[in-house]
Amino acid sequence: MKFWQKAYVLTLALFFVTLCGSIAALGLISQNQSFESECGKLLVQQHATAQSFVTDAAAVQARRPAALAQLARNYAAQQQGGLKVQQGENVWADTLPAPDAELPDPPAQGQRVHTVRISEGRHYLYVAARLPGPPEKMTMICAYDMEPFFEQWAQTWRTLVLAGLAVLAFLAVALYLVLRGLSRPMERLAAVAGRLAQGDYSARSEQQGKDEVGQLARALDEMADQVQKNIEKLEQSAQRKQQLVDNMAHELRTPLTAIGGYAEYVQRAELSEKERYEATSYIVDETRRLAAMSERLLQMAALRGERAVCAPVDVSLLLESVFSTMRSKARERQINLQVKSSFTGTIQGEKVLLESLLINLTDNALKACAPGDIVELGAEHTGNYIRLWVKDTGCGMDQETIQRLGDPFFRPDKARSREQGGAGLGISLCRAIAAAHGAHLRFESTPGEGTIASAFFTSSQSADENAVIPREHT
Predict the structure, then answer these.
(1) How far is it, in rounded angstroms, from Cα 258 to Cα 264?
(2) Burial class (CB in 10 A: 0-12, 13-18, 19+), 52
(3) How far apart are alpha carbons 338 and 66 in whole angstroms?
(4) CA 75/CA 385 separation, integer angstroms
(5) Do residues 294 and 248 lie in contact, with contact meaning Cβ atoms separated by under 8 Å?
(6) In which band, very low, low, confident or very high, does the pLDDT at 416 lie, cut at 50, 70 and 90?
(7) Residue 66, exposed/middle/buried by CB under 10 A (0-12, 13-18, 19+)?
(8) Above 60 in pLDDT, residue 160?
(9) In the predicted model, is pLDDT for residue 28 greater than 60?
(10) Between helices 351-368 and 426-436, what is the axis angle to 10°?
(11) Taking each helix axis from N to C terminus, what angle separates 147-197 and 212-268, rounded to the nearest 10 degrees?
């Protein structure tokens, strides 16, 4: 049985008991009051009859005592309900209807008692009184027909019962409609909760109102919104973690290639002690950079949303380090790699991540170039920001491609990227590194003319800490 059905049955039962009790109590009180009023009227009549008989009996006793019996019979003939007059054991007149039980005797002279008895199916009020003498020891019992009174009250009781049943029937219908109407919003909320439990987090109650049901509906909708947001955050977190794994795999290639290249160079070439030392130094440096980069990427995954641990980084040394790392790859592809910088100061950042940023941008530039093209690394200080840039004279990109740069696994030229081993993850990692430094990437490109990739950092020398960084043109 549903909750609203239980409430319906219990409320209806409670009302039924209350209604029946109220009708019974009010009916009994009213009946008793009416009965007392009716008895009072009949007792007044009895008192008048008794007084008149006493007066007449005293007069007859004084003149003709033998006529007392006739006097009693005359009074009995005039009494509609019945009358019994006796002196001691001598009954002078008796027209009383026979009662179903013995009548009580009056307690003393001048007093009376009354009671209701049934005679032949009718209700009578019997009033017994001891009359004052003379003559002595006179008893009068009067009977009054009260059947009309009891019939009237029987009809009244039937009316009350029918009225109570009508009220109960009306309440049953009204209560059913009200409770059924009140339960429907709760059923809708239960259905929404069921859909949420099954994983449909788009379910909403859309329930209006300021009552408790409306408050519950809004709370349920807010909970669903929060759950959906949490699910989306979890999905985004899972995607970021997967992207981190992919980025790490992508990032491992460049230093491993450099290490492998120098190791093969040491193995196959006949080198002097100085050349061997330089080659092994590059291997050691790349190994250290690889370890530091991997550790920091793992830290970024664990401490998502935190800023990079910044320290002064010499821009000239940063560019020289990137140049040294990418020089062999540029020479292999017959591309002229150059460093042209007008800024020789420092920027606040983390050296390993900044190297990774510029290496990825340089690697993308090399992939976009053909033999004989030029790739430039540089830095400049303009206004409130410092700009690190990588410029190439390669194939360039259109605006649609620029807008999609940074999407995981997106490759502008899929055939060339596949041939060169590109996975489409470098730019997304660059954006993450720039965001960790509070910087911003901007790409400017013209198909057939080349591309400029710029990273804008707020100038450490500027007093304006809220300087506006130029945004990417799209």
Answers:
(1) 10
(2) exposed
(3) 163
(4) 133
(5) yes
(6) very low
(7) exposed
(8) yes
(9) yes
(10) 150
(11) 10
What region does 306 belong to: left with phi over 0, alpha with psi -120 to 50, or beta? beta
Closest C-alpha among 343, 350, 366, 338 to residue 257: 366
Q: Is the dihedral of CA 412, 418, 419, 420 positive or negative?
A: positive
CA-CA distance, 27 to 24, in Å (whole number)? Answer: 5
Average pLDDT on 446-454 reads 91
Asked if residues 396 and 448 have their Cβ atoms less than 8 Å apart, the reply is: yes
Report which of 362, 289, 294 is spatially closest to residue 322, judged by C-alpha positions: 362
SS3 270: coil
CB 288 within 8 A of CB 255: no
Are 441 and 430 in contact, with CB atoms under 8 Å apart? yes
Q: Which two tokens stand for residue 233?
A: 């955050």
The residue-averaged pLDDT of 149-178 equals: 91
What is the structure's pLDDT at 409? 46
Would you state the pLDDT for residue 301?
Answer: 59
pLDDT band with cut points at 50, 70 and 90 for residue 145? very high
Nearest-CA neighbor of 402 among 364, 435, 438?
Answer: 364
Determine the residue type at 285. D
* Bond before 312 cis per omega within 30 degrees: no
- Dihedral over Cα of 121, 125, 129, 131: its sign: negative
Q: Which of 171, 179, 119, 175 is nearest to 145 (CA)?
A: 119
Please state, in angstroms and rounded to a whole number, the distance separating the CA atoms of residues 444 and 471: 11
Predicted confidence (pLDDT) per residue in 52-110, tens digit: 988 888 888 888 888 888 988 999 998 888 999 988 888 899 999 988 888 887 777 77
- Tallying the residues shown for the chain, one arrives at 474
**Which residue in 84, 67, 64, 61 sits closest to 136, CA to CA?**
61
Main-chain phi, psi angles of 311, to 5 degrees: -150, 160
Cis omega (within 30 of 0) for bond into 134: yes
Contact 119, 100 (CB under 8 A): yes
In this prediction, residue 412 carries a pLDDT of 61
Considering only CA atoms, give the Rg of the chain.
57
Residue 472, pLDDT score = 36
Strands 336-339 and 374-382 come out as parallel
Q: What is the DSSP letter of 109?
A: B
8 A C-beta contact, residue 118 and residue 99: yes
Instruction: Write down the pTM of the prediction.
Output: 0.47
Tokens representing 418 are 């596949």
- pLDDT over 70 at 295, yes or no: no
Structure-token pair, residue 307: 């800023």
pLDDT band at 473 (very low <50, low <70, confident <90, very high): very low
Q: How many Å separate Cα 169 from the centre of its chain? A: 36
pLDDT digits (tens, 9 = 90+) for 379-394: 998 888 899 999 999 9
